[in-house]
Design a protein that fits this description.
The structure holds 2 protein chains of 2 kinds. By secondary structure, chain A is of the alpha+beta class. In chain A, 43% of the residues lie in helices and 18% in strands. Chain A has 2 domains: 22-228, 2-Layer Sandwich (Cytochrome Bc1 Complex, Chain A, domain 1), CATH 3.30.830; 251-439, Cytochrome Bc1 Complex, Chain A, domain 1 (2-Layer Sandwich). Chain A has 16 helices and 12 strands. In chain A, the strands form 2 sheets. Chain A has a 6-stranded mixed sheet, with helices on both faces. A 5-stranded mixed sheet of chain A has the order 7-11-8-10-9, sandwiched between helices. Chain A is globular, with a radius of gyration of 24 Å. The termini of chain A are far apart. Mean pLDDT of chain A is 92; it is low at 1-10 and 443-458. Chain B has a 6-stranded mixed sheet, with helices on both faces. A 5-stranded mixed sheet of chain B has the order 10-14-11-13-12, with helices on both faces. A two-stranded antiparallel ribbon of chain B has the order 5-6. Chain B folds into 2 domains: 38-242, Metalloenzyme, LuxS/M16 peptidase-like (Cytochrome Bc1 Complex, Chain A, domain 1); 265-445, Metalloenzyme, LuxS/M16 peptidase-like (Cytochrome Bc1 Complex, Chain A, domain 1, 2-Layer Sandwich), CATH 3.30.830. Chain B is 42% helix and 18% strand. Chain B is α+β, with helices and mostly antiparallel strands. Classes of the chains: A alpha+beta, B alpha+beta. Chains A and B meet through α1, α2, α3, β4 and β5 of A and α1, β1, α3, β8 and α5 of B.
């Protein structure tokens, strides 16, 4: 068993009745749909989420962005309900709804008063297998998607830098492609390709239904059976995993775009928690390491780089432990006034070297443990994020039970383990760096006013 | 488990539309009998701070939100309000910035600050176990009552603001909104953008900060919202404790009224981008305007309800012109704005702007149909319980109710007020307040 420091143990024991997710129930329908229900009786509401095991990391060259485009089309009508009806029905029932596409998942959700759950389940079951995919609707919606791409990426210099960064870091692993897809792929996409993609992935045996709220599990299972039970399973053949060849040296790119401030992204290739190696401590040590660097205002980046040397104006470290495929530990930031990106990079490298040379202090480890315990409690204020936690774990190939284990697993990480993963993974041969080099923004700061011109645009 | 905001910030989830529309509201027939609107208790601390409290015993945590009428509308120099509020946490009482960060994070407390036109606020979340609770409260008491405002921290945060202001200049959306507020509000304090200007921020000194603090960070100008697993007696002790360092002071005078816009104005901001951003707006109503509810429901139908709004149906769903198109009503202490906005590729800008204006004019002329009004009422009233189902959401409601002096039964009467709105009232309210011939239009994009 992992050894947990004393104060954390006391707090954990005090909180264990709240921390334990004992009220989670699961059932797998005959057609393979996994249904997970978590009771939360604080308020008479419910969140329903359907998670599909498909996202941009399932895509291949030429069809990037297809999972996200399909997500848009999921609101454009089935054989039974016309375009937009889904949203109208949920709205008329006092609900809110949306969907999101990630690299490893596509998910749809509705938040409703608890007695409206059935409406959401009926509609979700309907669009799981009966989407209409009308060419006329597609022609309009793909335009919306390209507008979304312009808004999020093309006209946003930091997002553009991140996009180029991932494409440079990976040669073949699918995380190289943006979720929204490359513009040229969006231009050559077609409703037929979407139809094939839909048929291939949208099936009960490739989905998880997560329901969290003021519900009785047996009733939810009965409703799930009623609406999803008759849906046909599909033969799911997962894409061949193209393992990224070992990186053989530092990669460095420049991104020139109109901007006012430079920006730096660095990423070290790291392992992720794998379903077949759940006992692996390295991902937890990397997660701990990211908190040591950037787990709040008292963590090293804020303390040393934003305040101490004042080289960074802002800086973040990110590591995500739950992915389908190995990802990176990334660090991104903007230099402070009077400092350059090169100085920022050097300062970050010094912090990495320090992690490799000296063990982190017990006080720092203890701080992270307390923060994680508190966060775990705070998470319970949101049924949305409780459902999201379950959905992500299940969809990347892990189990929801890992969410219970997480606090004790990360609490068990030692200073030596943090040092070991720093020495093993945070090395130059494993590193990709992208720098935004600002280009002129023209006369952007000098508006031209035409007063009194009332009909100029019509 | 991992913090999603932290883990996903590099590659944002590609959301189909932006989450975060604040949907306030609903039909009685939808609310299950077990549903209880949170019961709000309110009192004043000995030195005059209004407290609003909701007991939420289910989770062992406490949310404290402290709000001051000290936003950019009150500042003597652009950027002072935000800088003052941000500096509070950078050293206070016997603790410097490092010690404050360490004290709070060692017990898992989170603390954030923010400042807009009307309000500046601090938001703290803690477990209620010891030593977390006492550490959190002691530190917050010092932060509110004994901030240090050291020269070193001032200089650092000033530099951070200057970098952020530079970054704003590469964001077409921010530059467009900034230009819109400036044109709508002219010499009124609401014209100040809360992040300030580079020229002004560079000149902010300690006296500016101290003067803003002395004048506005006083007990009578504060509102405290408390939501969590504490009882009334504890809540009273906590409110008294955290305000104990504040001088009594006074509430500031009313902000000046906003002059009506008497012209149409078009501003073009040249920007080397692929998509034009269009923002249209005018000053509209105060938080306490009797037409608030008709305008709220009307705006919901027009462009405030996401994909089912008129604007979204016509511009996004029917024509594929924009990913995000909406209208918003932002009532404030004085006349906050009514704003419409969208983004579309440059070659479609003219068409999209024409449609925006056409839809607005038609809506002002005819108001909503019976079907549209019924759908909006169902959506607003049905989603009301969803919007007050978390401690954090309740804390935000409490501070809003306290700040704008809404009655304590605001949540209890909300649904009835929405249901009482008629199509005629919406039409009349729009005709009174929204004037399609008196609007500012800002277009950000390459000027051809």
């Amino acid at each position: 068993m992992p050894k947990i420091f004393i104060i954390a143990t006391i707090l954990l024991s005090l909180l264990s009745p709240i921390l334990a997710d004992s009220k989670v129930h699961e059932q797998i329908l005959a057609n393979g749909l996994k249904v997970i229900v978590k009771e939360d009786h604080r308020a008479p509401i419910v969140i329903s989420q359907v998670w599909y095991k498909v996202g941009s990391s399932y895509e291949h060259d030429g069809v990037t962005g297809i999972s996200h485009a399909l997500e848009h089309m999921m609101f454009k009508g089935t054989q039974k309900y016309g375009p937009g009806k889904f949203s109208e029905i949920i709205a008329a029932n006092g609900g809110s709804e949306n969907a999101f596409t990630g690299r490893d998942y596509t998910a749809y959700f509705q938040k409703l008063a608890k007695d409206r759950l059935e409406i959401a389940l009926e509609l979700e079951a309907d669009r799981m297998r009966n989407l209409a995919l009308l060419p006329a609707e597609y022609a309009k919606e793909i335009k919306v998607v390209t507008e979304e791409r312009r808004l999020r990426t093309d006209d946003n210099p930091t997002a553009l830098t991140v996009e180029h960064f991932y494409a440079a870091a990976y040669m073949i692993a699918p995380y190289r492609n943006p979720i929204i897809g490359w513009m040229s792929d969006l231009k050559t996409m077609s409703v037929d390709k979407l139809q094939t993609w839909y048929q291939k992935w949208y099936a009960p045996n490739n989905a998880t239904l997560v329901v969290v709220g003021d519900v009785e599990p047996t009733q939810v299972f009965a409703l799930a059976n009623k609406y999803f039970g008759h849906l046909q399973a599909e033969k799911i053949s997962h894409p061949i995993i193209r393992t990224e060849p070992k990186q053989l040296g530092l990669k460095r790119i420049a991104v020139k775009a109109p901007a006012k401030e430079s920006y730096l992204v660095m990423g070290y290739k790291t392992p992720t928690l794998e379903p077949t190696k759940l006992e692996d401590w390295e991902p937890y040590a990397l997660d701990m390491l990211s908190y040591i660097l950037d787990g709040g205002s008292s963590a090293r980046f804020s303390k040393q780089l934003i305040r101490g040397s004042q080289i960074a104006s802002n800086i973040d470290a990110d590591y995500s432990i739950f992915n389908r495929l190995p990802e990176m530990l990334t660090i991104d930031g903007t230099p402070a006034k009077g400092h350059t990106v090169a100085e920022l990079e050097q300062a970050i490298r010094k912090q990495i070297t320090r992690l490799q040379k000296e063990p982190v202090s017990p006080k720092e480890l203890q701080r992270v443990r307390q923060q994680i315990i508190a966060k775990k409690i705070f998470l319970k204020d949101s049924i949305f994020y409780q459902a999201m936690e379950i959905g992500i774990l299940e969809t990347v190939g892990l189990k929801w039970q890992l969410s219970d284990e997480y606090v004790s697993r990360i609490s068990a990480v030692t200073a030596e383990q943090v040092q070991l993963v720093a020495q093993k993974y945070l090395v130059d041969d494993n590193l990709t760096i992208a720098v935004l080099e600002p280009q002129p923004l023209d006369s952007a700061t000098h508006p031209v006013a035409y007063k009194g011109a009332s009909n100029i645009v019509r | 488990m991992c913090d999603y905001a932290k883990a996903s910030h590099l590659y944002d989830l590609s959301l189909r539309k932006l989450i975060g529309l604040i949907l306030l509201a609903v039909n009685l027939w939808i609310i299950p009998s077990a549903w209880a609107i949170p019961k709000i208790q309110s009192w004043n601390t000995p030195n005059g701070t209004k407290v609003l409290f909701v007991s939420a015993p289910e989770l062992p945590m406490l949310d404290v939100r402290v709000v001051f009428n000290a936003g950019s509308a009150r500042e003597a120099k652009p950027g002072v309000a935000l800088l003052t509020n941000s500096l509070l946490t950078q050293g206070a009482g016997q603790w410097d910035v490092e010690q404050i960060a360490e004290r709070l994070e060692a017990v898992g407390v989170t603390l954030s600050t923010g400042s807009l036109r009307d309000m500046s606020w601090l938001s703290l979340r803690t477990l209620i176990m010891q030593p977390a609770l006492n550490t959190a409260l002691e530190t917050l008491t010092a932060i509110l009552g004994k901030p240090l405002f050291t020269a070193k921290d001032l200089k650092r945060l000033r530099n951070t603001m200057l970098v952020a202001l530079n970054q704003e200049e590469q964001k077409p959306g921010t530059m467009g909104t900034r230009a819109l507020y400036k044109a709508i509000y002219g010499n009124h304090p609401y014209a100040n953008y809360p992040t300030g200007t580079k020229e002004a921020v560079a000149s902010i000194n300690r006296n500016d900060i101290q003067a803003h603090y002395n004048k506005y960070y006083v007990a009578k100008n504060a509102i405290i919202a408390l939501v969590g697993a504490i009882d009334r007696k504890q809540a009273e002790q906590i409110a008294t404790q955290i305000t104990s360092g504040l001088t009594t002071g006074a509430t500031p005078p009313k902000l000046p009224k906003v002059p009506k816009l008497d012209r149409n104005q078009l501003e073009l901001l040249d920007f080397p981008i692929t998509q034009s951003h269009i923002y249209i707006g005018q000053p509209c109503i105060t938080r306490n305007d009797p037409d608030y509810f008709p305008l709220y429901v009307g705006n919901h139908i027009l462009g405030g309800s996401g994909l089912v709004s008129l604007l979204s149906k016509e511009i996004r769903e029917r024509r594929g012109l924009s990913y995000s198109v909406s209208s918003a009503l932002r009532p404030m202490q004085q006349q906050g704005p009514f704003i419409m906005g969208l983004q579309t590729k440059n070659s479609q800008a003219k068409q999209a702007l024409g449609l925006l204006m056409q839809i607005l004019q038609r809506f002002v002329q005819t108001g909503p149909s019976a079907v549209e009004l019924d759908a909006a009422k169902r959506n607003i009233t049905g989603s009301f319980p969803l919007g007050i189902a978390s401690n954090s959401a309740i804390a935000e409601y409490l501070s809003m109710i306290g700040f704008y002096n809404y009655p304590l039964d605001y949540l209890d009467t909300f649904i009835a007020k929405i249901n009482a709105v008629t199509a005629e009232q919406i039409k009349a309210a729009f005709q009174r307040h929204i004037h399609p011939k008196h609007l500012v239009t800002v277009i950000v994009g390459p000027v051809q």
